[in-house]
Amino acid sequence: MKKHKRSRAAISLFLAVCTLFSLILPVTAAEEEGLSYEVIIDPQYEDAGSFSQDLAAVKKNGKWGYIDTEGNTVIPFQFDYAFPFSEGLAVVGTLGEHPTYDGATAPVYFWSILDKQGNVTPLLYKEEGDTEYKQAKEFVDLLDSSAKVYYHNGYVVLGSIMSVDNYAPSLVFDRTGKQVYLGDYWVGYCLNEGAFAVTEAMGGNGLYLDESGKPVLEFSEEAYTRPFNQGLSPLAKYDVEREGFVFGFIDKNGKTVIPFQYQDFYIRGIYTTYQIFCDGIASVKNLNGKWGGIDKQGKTVIPFEYDALGTFLEGLAFACKDGKYGVIDTQNNVVVPFEYTRITSYSDGLAVAVKDGRAFCIDRYGKEVPGSNTISQESYFPAGLESSLTMTPDEIITVIENGKYGFARIGYTQPLPQEGEMSDWAYEEVTQAIQHGLVPADLQNQYYANITRGDFATIVVQLLEVVSGDSIEDIVLEETGKTLEELALTYPFSDTNSWDVVAANALGVINGRGGGIFDPYSAISRQDAAALLMRIGKYMGKTDVDTSGAAFADNASVASYAQEAVAYVKALGVMNGTSETTFSPFDTYTRQQSYMTIWRLYNVMVTE
């Protein structure tokens, strides 16, 4: 059966400097017995970015262009600066000159957007009162080398690239390259959950604006806003006693949900989703300078005893205590002992660890991954072991040899879960689901946790690909007549742009909540899980199912929309009750239960 791997970013960048630069992107893995490694594009470039949307920006003879995974030049070497592709577009810069205050000139980057066909469109803005547009530009020596610019939810924000002119408000641009004027505010982050977090340019008052620039939430006191995610936003207010700013969390009505008592926090996807509550936990720094974890109600779930605590990913987070790094889980159990100089966050079961001046990968149990030490140390730490920038392997990684950049393909399959990680009654079927490719690597953890709507969409897509042998892109195109990219770029939901969600929704398998809301982080009830499983089963052709005699004693409690579904999944033997006679429709649904039912549905489909 054909196995299709959807493209992801090819290098995971971990910037361990708290709120300013924490960026975590996913990695993938495939192979057995450790880490395989094969150079596919020889080191030959002066510089290189990571692969994103199947293209990587590389520099040759002083100019940047884009290559594909075969090393073919897709977009010629013609730019002086180049960012990764996202949502089908990339921001690129071309050198020019701009007058300075003393009458001389200085080199600047003129910014444009680039599509995958190589078309270049200037990023144009105009200040209030101007009649003509100007091209966005920045002095070369002022450009922050850590700047990352991505399209997200249809907009790109040049928050770290300030205009060389006296003042260029709201450097936000749409997909046509035109400025979206949001008033005289500084905008540093992407649109999230229908709002831009902005700050007054000459003051400190923050507020939230919708896409038209209309205020949706304002503050009468000095406050610094950050994007919403999962209905919450970190907000900084000035504390007179401390003579500094402290953070708390507000909801979309401006109500304080978590008190103002923190001085820092880690972020996942600072230029995109701006996710702070990862695996339901925010890693925050209290006013005493110690790190711990809180849930969305502000309850302390990880004690404030650490010198550093990364974002939780795959149920794990790096932590620092007494100058040494280790890894803890969401219950504060030590998974990897505190004996390392550094450890990155996990992605698809891998993290990079440093010990005795040597960098290598470890699995989720702390075991060194064979073969990972053969990868150039520069590929993990481009600026040396003390750099804040680290890279963990993805399917395609950047290779640096003798100052030249190339790419290698790696493979890795994380070990099967240990029996104690889930219920005894679930272990056999869950491991079968994993071995048959039905559970993505980044979801092979936290088996007792409730599965979210977004994660359920991901395993649905995985099931469809495995059973059909086709990519989800091909499936969607055949069913809808539109490409998955076309559907995704209509931005059907304001709270997620996951292509798995878009695909499952386009196929009629998973619906939103209405009003452009998908609610990706919420748990699924058992009756909703039954409804989803029925839709998947019927979509894959299992429409003739005898549901007579498949009722439960508590069937009257099942919502009308789920009545047929509960009988359907029971008749198929895909989903049973919580007892022989009860279904418990309102109970939540765990990951281990989800993987079991997906495995059973897979068996129904492939054996008939």
Q: What do these coordinates show?
A:
This protein is an alpha+beta fold. The chain has 3 domains: 1-44 and 317-415, no CATH class; 191-270 and 276-292 and 302-310, no CATH class; 419-606, no CATH class. The chain has 10 helices and 37 strands. The strands form 10 sheets. Strands 20, 21, 22, 23, 24, 25, 26 and 27 form an 8-stranded antiparallel β-sheet that branches. Strands 7, 8, 9, 10 and 13 form a 5-stranded antiparallel β-sheet that branches. Helix 4 crosses helix 7 (499-506), helix 4 (453-468) runs parallel beside helix 10 (591-606) and helix 8 (526-539) packs across helix 9 (563-572).
Please, what is the average pLDDT? 88
What summary fits the major beta sheet?
Answer: 8 strands, antiparallel
Helix content: 10-25%
Oligomer: single chain
Task: Note the main attributes of this structure.
10 helices; globular; 8-stranded antiparallel sheet; 608 residues; 5-stranded antiparallel sheet; single chain; 16% helix; 31% strand; alpha+beta; 37 strands
